[in-house]
From TrEMBL:
Designated name of the protein: Lipopolysaccharide heptosyltransferase family protein
Organism: Acidiferrobacter thiooxydans
One CC-aspect GO term: cytosol
Record GO biological process: lipopolysaccharide core region biosynthetic process
SUPFAM superfamilies referenced in this protein's UniProt entry, alphabetically: UDP-Glycosyltransferase/glycogen phosphorylase
Molecular function in Gene Ontology: ADP-heptose-lipopolysaccharide heptosyltransferase activity
Amino acid sequence: MRSFLVIRRDNIGDLVCTTPLFAVLKTRFPDARLCALVNTYNRAVLDGNPLIDAVYALPSHEEKRPGQNLRARLAENMAALSRLRKERFECVIQASRSTRRKDKVLGYLAGCRHYLTRCHDPDTGHEVVRTLSVLNGIGLYPQPAAPCVYPDPTAVARTRALLERSPAGPAPTAIHLSARSPEKRWPLERYLEFLQKAVALGGRFVVLWSPGPKSQPGHPGDDDRAATLSKELVGLPVTFFRTDMVADLMAVLAASSNLIACDGGHCHLAAALRVPVLGLYCNRFINDWRPWGGCIGSWARRAFRKSPWTRF
């Protein structure tokens, strides 16, 4: 085949788990044009990826800009679809779950000779493996490789300079406070207790979080939790680093020695950057969504306040 369009328009972690699919396609079809259709929110995950020829992005429902009416939104989407149709893709691959009907509609509107989607979504198995299963439809059964992302080297160097208090200082450990749903979040008092004890042992840390208020649509922000924790840690070697863009998050993770965090896209980004991850997961998510390829340990529990930890 001469050209592919891969559609993955959901969360950051989902798109990171799709990067092995691009590697398989480029290996099997080295001369094919390989493009991606993603959200404007997560497109930075694919920035700098040498395997991808072009990235198209459409805003998701949560990304609606203030003051933008329905007519303007439709016009923007139709213009993007028109550019996609001009590519005349030979094959469109819906890498997301087969139940995502909006992605399927976009794939057909983009125009193509062949359309691939997952035949079924198994209840078990990691998302990297499930995503690669879409290639079974063209007779490919690849072994899963490690995800890869490519942060801007200049941004990484700038961030590393901000984090290092002295030229010889070690890279800090990153702590991420946020998770999309309440059941995935570690209690703030546990972060406080851990950081106080770890700093006393000589550790250096950078605290990250999802910016914005708790009422933020799509992904609730943790500005309030970060402010509370910052007040409790005044005077300690703990840096609070706000990441307004996905590119900022990638840069600070690349400049960190390791990551301790709950389930979220940040864990997948760190693993793709080969940064060791200590993941804190709910039991029902760990097999499907643990960091692939960069995890030094994962602990899980049914609910963070109710049951003992289990190591995986």
